[in-house]
Structures are given as structure tokens and as C-alpha cells.
Amino acid sequence: MKRFTSTCIAAGLLAGVLGTAQAVPVTFIELTGAVGGVPAGTGVFKADLSVAGLGNMASITIRDSNSGVGGAGGQFSGFDLDGIKLSTTDCATAACADAAVGLSVFDFLAGTIFAPGAQRAPADPKLFGTGPGGNTVDDAVARLALFDGNASTITPDGFISLGDGGVLSFNLTSLVSTAGLFLYIGEVGNNGEVASSDITISDNRVPVPSTLALAGLALVLLQRKRAAT
User: Fold this and answer.
1) Residue 88 contacts residue 105 (beta carbons within 8 Å)
2) Residues 168, 130: Cα–Cα separation, whole Å
3) pTM
4) In the chain, what are the domain boundaries?
5) Is the pLDDT of residue 8 over 70?
């Protein structure tokens, strides 16, 4: 029977977290028209993933541009994400993307990893659409499976604000082929944040912060072991 020491286990964990993942940027075009709640001010953008150069994907990451573009300050700072969808339907209009059948590969509760960005003054306790601590997604408010955001700071609903420099990742529930697949992103207010943001797809899952911390501990253990020999 093989025996695995704690160092071997740590090395395996570190290799899994810091392995050979490939992440590639995707290019979007804006579709005509707008969708959303009241008022309906969500612009929808499409990326053809079949030309992205990645055969299969396990995660999607959106990084706010940190340019100060978009949003209205405070809890609405940064890129306001109305919804996200993967579909084999090739749309030319926002209404088509809204109605298109999406793949059931998102888990908007356990499958999201959020690092909130900064707020512009005057700051609020947390960004809009986030959980109690401000570092998770409150999907009861954000409803990221739908393009239904109210483009209003008076009666906001149906989206999440990332903050300036915020990062939101989606670990898909299964590995998905990019062949014939389109990614749709809804931006509340349609004020240019999608065009300037960094949006990538990866063939590996994004590690949760606790896993990263454990990987860091594993690296320390490995370094100490090597130093002692």
C-alpha cells in the first residue's frame, strides 16, 4: 500500500491549484437594441467562443477595467453586470440574446468567486447586488441568469456592481466545449465598461480563496523541507 506524507499531499494540492491552466481573452461586439427591467437600459454584448482558441472551458472571469468608467459612484461603482449566458444561438439583437436558451452550467451561488473593487465617493457599506459581507454575490438581487436589470439608482434591481478593479469569476458546473458557442454579457446602463474590461475564459476552475491559502501553506512546507535536506 502506498503511503502519502503531508508533504506529498501538499505538493499534489499545489500542483492542482497552480497547474497548467490556459486563460484566453475574448472579444465582444455590441448587439443592437436594449433589454432589462424598468427602465430597460441593458446593453448586450456577444463573444464567439469558437474562435477564442480554447477547445473546452471550465470558468469565466470578468475584471473591471479600473478606469473609473461606468457606474454612478458608491455602491454602483464599476462594471454593472446584469446577466451572463452561454448559448449555441447566434444573435444579432439584445432581444434575441435575452430570449435565447442558455446552457445550464452556471451555479450563481456556490460557483461564483468575487473580489470587490473600490467604491468612488461617497462610499456605501457594500456594492450593490452583493451579500452581507460585500464579497459574495446576492443572486436574489443580482439574478445573473436573466437580463432584467433596472438601469436606475433610484429603483435598482437585477444586477451586481463590481466596483473599480473588481473581479468576478464563474466556475461552470461541467467542462463545456467552445465549438459553436456564444457568450452573452449584459451591462446595465450600457456605458462602455464591457468594451474596456478584461474578460477571459479558462480551461481550469478558479480556486476559491481558502484553497489558495492552503496552496500557499503547501508551498511554505515544501520550501522548508527542501531547506532542511
Assistant:
1) no
2) 11
3) 0.83
4) 1-20+207-229, 22-203
5) no
